[in-house]
Amino acid sequence: MATCRPAMPSFSTSCPPSTAEQARATSSQHLLSFLPRRATWPAASEGRRPSSSETVATGNSSHLRQAVQMSESEAPAPAPTPTSAALAAAAPPASPSLPDDEDILRMILLRLPPLPSSLPRASLVSKLWRRVVSDPGFRRRFRAHHKTPPLLGFFFHNFNLQRSWHVFTPTLAASDRIPPARFACPSKGSLLGCRHGLALLEAGSTAVVWDPITGRRSSVDFPPELTLNRNVTVYHGAVLGDPAGSGGFRFRLIMVSYRVFQGTLRASIYDSDSGNWGQIISTAAFSDCFKPGVLVGSKLYWLIRHRSGGFLELDVDRRSLAVIRLSEDIPVPEGAHVQALRTRDGGLGVAVVAKRRMQLWGSTAISGDVVRAVLQKTVDLEQLLSLPLPSTNAHESSVVGYDEDTNTIFVWTSVGVFMIQLESMEFTKVSEDTCIRGYYPFASFYTPGS
């Protein structure tokens, strides 16, 4: 059974207190594991004198051979000096030229773990290494090579009698932890979700797209059709970054509003390249939606606020909106919490958490407006997390967050919040929080020059 991780100290993107020489030695030793073994060079008799480095590497053998030769003849005759033609004839065929040192170094550095400390430590080795890892083109290749960014931590809504704000909490090991102050939230609005290294906040009738790594932000006013009024009660939204990582501050913004008296959900998509909102799309709905959306392929899914646990489906490519229901084969007990998932094969999955049990369902098909799924796993949370005996608390467990890229779910219990990786079932207790509130996981590549 997996065990909880202990609390970690604060993060630093530089090496722990040590000399620059130790940092360079550590990085060099780590990178040597990616290099091939040293090639075997031809002997001197094959037409080439061994270099000084080869003599050092084989010094003991050279002395032994000399001792044996001297014992056979106290005064060996000098070997004849070969002619230039003989040397040329005996020389081995020329090998194909290798890439220059920077090309080899880039290939090695690309394979470093995508953790915040990897490239900063490598940059301490030499000026050449620092130049390579600081190059914007290399950083793009680094992100493309690893594809899935590490989960740096999560934001959660903190509040007291005086004010409320969103606080960042790191979850990585000590050497990779980002200080919470580094990701101080720039707006007093409501956090709607994080994706592709960006966070989306709603402040009145304005959306704020924020990059916590660079600090850049962009404010976008909602279209008039989605502006808050007595008919519009609440907003939901999602942000999609530039998956190619081509640079710049490019994104697509999706906003959804619920019109109470008309019983409709309306949405629109904003493109930062054009600076315009698209046409308004809508669908009839018997209830509002809530929780951050989950991206599966080109579709976003928000949970409908109803005990049957249906989803609002928005197809970003086709610009369509629909409400889909869960099949009766997926039981949703009274008081259960439902969460949309992205399965390993890129499909839509469903998690149902009721009391101290979690069921994971893999989607097989969406037939019409009904999600049909097959049960893949049942998890006893009491046994997995070593929870104490049940109390009179009606809310024994709740889903409070989910990261689609790492397939990690955040579950609130009476003793705190746990982060569970749904494939390995490895977990970490990330908070002693006794309040049920939203947790917003944040994953991104934290590299030099970001």
Main pleated-sheet profile: 8 strands, mixed
By secondary-structure content and strand pairing, the structural class works out as: alpha+beta
Q: How many helical elements? A: 9
Task: Going across the biggest sheet, name each strand in turn.
Answer: 12-13-14-15-19-18-17-16
Overall pLDDT metric: 78
Ends distance:
38 Å
Radius of gyration: 30 Å
Number of strands: 24
Q: Based on the structure given, which CATH architecture of the domain at 148-443 is correct?
A: 6 Propeller
Shape: globular
Percent strand equals 35-45%
The CATH class of the domain at 148-443, by name, is Mainly Beta
* Residues in helices, as a percent range: 10-25%
CATH topology of the domain at 148-443: Neuraminidase
Runs in which pLDDT lies below 50 for 5 or more consecutive residues are 1-20, 31-75
Describe this structure as you would to a colleague.
By secondary structure, this protein is α+β, with helices and mostly antiparallel strands. The protein has a domain at 148-443: Neuraminidase. Helix content is 17%, strand content 36%. It is built from nine helices and 24 strands. A hairpin with a 2-residue loop joins strand 18 (357-367) and strand 19. Helix 5 (101-109) crosses helix 7 (127-134). The longest helix has 14 residues, at 59-72.
Relevant terms:
Neuraminidase; F-box-like_dom_sf; 5-stranded antiparallel beta sheet; disordered N terminus; alpha+beta; AT5G49610-like_b-prop; 450 residues; single chain; 17% helix; 8-stranded mixed beta sheet; F-box_dom
